[in-house]
């Protein structure tokens, strides 16, 4: 899962799945690191399975918390973040484009369910937990989909994504997603009225878009505030209330995540990575990196490569 009138340009830049099969599976259960997914949004629908653990969520600037097994639904365009509060956790997600479900020959299913889903006129509920009599059937179907992804003849792992190029597996996954929607429709949990986006959410998306497009440049609070026509003082309070961090803290954290990805995937010099990610002061960069990870960038790279080789 990455970050985020006209729609602002920011959305998660990572594509989910492939062009011919826009659907991917994710599974996080690392006991040595807490899960932290920063604020972002994407056009795809995301069905998250929180198998166990304690989690804090933020969806369209509304906070949620859960420590029970449940399903969480992220509709198209919803700004969201997720983090685990416990070291022991298991989080899974199926992310897909609703358009992949449409049939070539337009029929009543397309008209009443699938097309409204692609237009965000039919939306998923927020949660589904064991208090629902439909929970067991939904979980069983979801687990079949995750099993197909993991056991496919042509399973591909790209970054954090698990994909499949096997056509039969894709057919079974597509049928499984349709079955999930059928269970929710039968339960009367799909919402027919479109969700409208508030001006505050649009403003935050605009600012996050600007940060992700310009993080490698010098950024000032005034630059961000001007994107949404606010004065600096009011903007700082608004951003902190919305995201839970000051604008500068968010920018630094975003840049550090970019640094970490480059340390893991390339062999560029630390100084080069530092400058490429928008840090112009090496001493400040080293201090922020150590505060985030507990070690220096060089130590991080050596430790990562050592674990990878094992």
From TrEMBL:
Domain HTH araC/xylS-type: 205-303
SMART domains to which the protein is assigned, alphabetical: HTH_ARAC (SM00342)
Molecular-function GO terms, alphabetical: DNA-binding transcription factor activity; sequence-specific DNA binding
Gene3D superfamilies: Homeodomain-like (1.10.10.60), Jelly Rolls (2.60.120.10)
InterPro entries in alphabetical order: AraC-bd (IPR003313), Homeodomain-like_sf (IPR009057), HTH_AraC (IPR018060), HTH_AraC-typ_CS (IPR018062), RmlC-like_jellyroll (IPR014710), RmlC_Cupin_sf (IPR011051), Tscrpt_reg_AraC-type_HTH (IPR020449)
Keyword annotations of the record: DNA-binding, Transcription, Transcription regulation
Protein name as catalogued: AraC family transcriptional regulator
Organism whose genome encodes this protein: Oliverpabstia intestinalis
């Amino acid at each position: 899962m990455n970050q985020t009138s006209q729609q602002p340009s920011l959305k998660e830049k990572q594509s989910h799945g492939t062009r011919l099969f826009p659907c991917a599976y994710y599974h996080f259960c690392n006991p040595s690191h807490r899960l932290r997914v920063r604020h972002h949004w994407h056009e795809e629908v995301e069905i998250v399975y929180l198998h166990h653990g304690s989690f804090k969520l933020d969806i369209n600037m509304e906070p949620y918390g859960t420590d029970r097994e449940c399903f969480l639904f992220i509709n198209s365009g919803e700004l969201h973040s997720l983090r685990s509060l416990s070291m022991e956790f298991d989080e899974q997600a199926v992310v897909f484009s609703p358009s992949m479900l449409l049939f070539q020959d337009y029929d009543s299913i397309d008209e009443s369910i699938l097309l409204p889903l692609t237009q965000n006129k039919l939306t998923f509920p927020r949660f589904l937990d064991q208090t629902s009599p439909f929970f067991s059937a939904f979980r069983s179907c979801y687990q079949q989909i995750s099993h197909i992804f993991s056991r496919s003849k042509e399973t591909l792992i790209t970054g954090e994504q698990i994909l499949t190029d096997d056509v039969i597996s894709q057919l079974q996954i597509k049928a499984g997603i349709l079955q999930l929607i059928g269970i929710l429709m039968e339960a009367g949990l799909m919402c027919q009225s479109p969700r409208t986006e508030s001006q505050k959410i649009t403003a935050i998306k605009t600012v996050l878009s600007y940060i992700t497009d310009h993080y490698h440049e010098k950024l000032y609070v005034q630059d961000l505030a001007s994107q949404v026509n606010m004065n600096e003082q009011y903007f700082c309070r608004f951003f902190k209330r919305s995201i839970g961090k000051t604008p500068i803290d968010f920018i630094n954290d975003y840049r550090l995540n970019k640094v970490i990805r480059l340390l893991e995937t390339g062999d560029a010099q630390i100084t080069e990575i530092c400058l490429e990610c928008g840090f112009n002061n090496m001493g400040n960069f080293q201090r922020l990196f150590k505060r985030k990870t507990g070690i220096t960038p060089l130590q991080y790279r050596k430790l990562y490569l050592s674990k990878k080789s094992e």
